[in-house]
Amino acid sequence: MFMLRTTRYRKRWTLLLTLGLLLVRFTPLGAQAGGDVAIVVHPDVPIDNLTVNELRRLLLGDREFWPASVRVTLLIRAPIAHERDVVLKSVCQMTEAQFRQHWIGKVFRAETALAPKIAYSSEMAVDLVNRIPGAITFMDASQVGKGLKVVKIEGRLPGERGYELH
Amino acid sequence: MASRLGDSVTLRSALVVAVSLCAPGRAASQEDTARTSSATAAQSTHADQTGRDAPATTEYPAFHLSGFGDVAFSDQNKSEGPRGFSEGQFVLHFASALSPRVNFFGELSFTPRADAGSGTPPATGFNAEVERVIIRFDRNDQLKVSFGRYHTPVNWWNTAFHHGQWLQTTISRPEMVQFGGRFIPVHFVGALAEGTFPAAGWNLNYQAGIGNGRGNVISRAGDAGDNNGRPAWLLNVFVSPDRVFGLQVGGSLYFDRISLAGRPEFSERIAAAHAVWHREDPEVIAEIADVHHQELGGLLAASSLAYYIQTAYRLPSFGRLWKPYYRFEHIDIDAADPVFAGVPNLDGSTVGVRYDISTYAAIKSEVRVRRRVSDQPRMDGWFLQISFTF
Questions:
Q1: What is the CATH number of domain B2-114+121-389?
Q2: Least confident window among B30-39, B107-116, B186-195, B291-300
Q3: Can you tell me the distance from the alpha carbon of B275 to that of B351, in angstroms, rounded to the nearest whole number?
Q4: With an 8 Å Cβ cutoff, are A132 and B39 in contact?
Q5: What is the rounded CA–CA span in Å between residue A98 and residue A104?
Q6: How far apart are alpha carbons A7 and A3 in whole angstroms?
Q7: ipTM tops 0.85
Q8: Three-state DSSP class for B181?
Q9: Most Cβ neighbours (<10 Å): which of B224, B254, B295, B318?
C-alpha cells in the first residue's frame, strides 16, 4: 500500500516537472524581457545599434560624443539597482568599487568634468532621457514604455534570443 | 631667427584654432542654450514629481570639488625622505563644465616640507602649488584642444595617478616620475590637442602638445614663460583594443631645448613606451624611457635609461579587499651627462599589500629595498600609508 502511494507521488512530481520544463522551453522569449536590460537613448540620437564594445566605451566615458558631435549624457541607475549590476558586470566587466574608481580617475585625469548622472528610479530615467539631448540610460526592459527609443545591442532588442544584457 | 619666426607662426595658428573652437558657431550656441533650458525644465518637473532634488540635470557652470589626502609612517635604515609619521600631500581638484563643450580643470596641492618656513633653521610648513590649470574645448571625440599646465603625457603613471595617492596601488611612485624628480619633465605648460579614433576597434588615441618645456631648474616647468624661446614638443600615441579590454599600449616622444645657468645648451629627446593591463586580476604596468641629451655646438651626447614593471593581483576572497603587489625599477644615468648631474642610479624592489577599508580609503603597507651604487649597502625601509579620496 505504502509503495503504491510513493510510486503515485513520484509519477505526479515527474509529470509536473516535465510540464514545467516544457513551459520554460516554449515560452515566447518576449515574455522573459522583464529580466533583460534595455538601452534607451534620447529620440534624436542618431544611433539604432551599438556593439557591446561601443556601449562599454560610452559607459566608461571613453566616447563622449554621438555622430554630429552631440555630447553624450550618461544617466545611470543608483547602486544596488538590478540594471546597474547587469551593466557593470556584463558590459563594463567591473565591480561597483572598480566602476567608481574608474570614474574618479577619469575626472582626476581631466578627461571629463562631468561624471555620470544618477537616476534614482526608472521613471526618473525615462523622464530625463526624453528631455536631455544626447542622453543614454538603461532600464528593465519591462518598464520601457511607448515613445522611448530602444537601441539594439549587437543587432538584437531586449527579449530576442541572444540578447546579452540580462 | 627663421626658426623663431616659425615657432611664432605655429603658436599663432594654435591660437586661431583655439579661438575658432571657443566659438563653435551659432548652431552649437543655440544647442547649448536649448539644452540648458531643457535641463532646467527637467529638473523642476522632476523635483515636483518626486519631492527630491534631481541631480541628473546640468546647469553651467557645473562645478565639482574633490580631493586626495594621505597620512604615512616610515621606518628606514638610511633616511630617504621623512621618518616616523608624516602628512602626505593634501590635494584639491576643481572640475567645472562651463558648457557642453568647454571644461575647466584645476588642481592645487599643499605639500609638507621641512624648510617651508622662514628663519634659521627654517620652520616646517606647507608649500602650496598650482599643479594643473586646464581649459579644454571639445569639438568631438577626435579633436579636443586645451591650454594650461599639465602633467606631461610622456609617461603613463604621471598622468594616470600623479597626486592621486589613493588611485595608485602602491604607496610610492616609480622614481623615474617622482615628485621633484628630474628624469622626466613632470609638468608641461602650453597647449595640447588630443582625440581618439575607433580605428576598427583598436581605439587609437593621440595627444600632441607644444609648450615651454623645462625651466632653468629642470625639475620645474616654465610656468612664467619659456626660458630659451624654443618650445618643447610632444606626441603621445596609444591604443586600447576592444578585443583585449583592459590593455593599453603606447609610446611617446618629447623634444626640448635645455638651458642651464653657466652651461652650454642641450637638446633633449625622450622616447618612452608603456604597456598597461589595468584590470586588477592581475594588474600589470610596465614603462620604459630613454632620455638623450646632445650638447648644441658640441660633441657631448649622453643617454640615460629608466624602466619599471609593477604587478598586482586583487585576491578574489576576503571580499576582494586585499591586493598584494610587487615592483622592480631601474634607473641608469649616464655619468657623462651634465644635465643629470646628481641624479642617482637605482635598482629597487617594492613589495607590499593594499587593503581597501572602504570604497574611498585604503591602507597600504610596503617594504622597499634600494641600492644606489653597486658596491654600497642597500637601503631598506618599511612604509605604511592611509590614503583616501573625498
A1: 2.40.160.10
A2: B30-39
A3: 20
A4: yes
A5: 10
A6: 6
A7: no
A8: coil
A9: B254
